[in-house]
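Journal club side-thread
Mid-discussion, someone asked how the predicted structure for our own chain would compare to the paper's figures. Pasting it here so we can look after the session.
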Amino acid sequence: LDEPTAGLDKASEGRFAGLMREHLGDGGMVVAATHLPLGLEGARELQMRVGH
């Protein structure tokens, strides 16, 4: 997903996060590119940086 919460209001962000938590809890995977942390407790995050 590319910037999955862009343009969402806070309530929609919360619903989306809930869907991702449920999916992860069922053993699923979420791949997302975002400038802001998604705040999914227990999820593994990979941060990519440009430069040194």
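Post-session note: Residues 1-52 form one domain.
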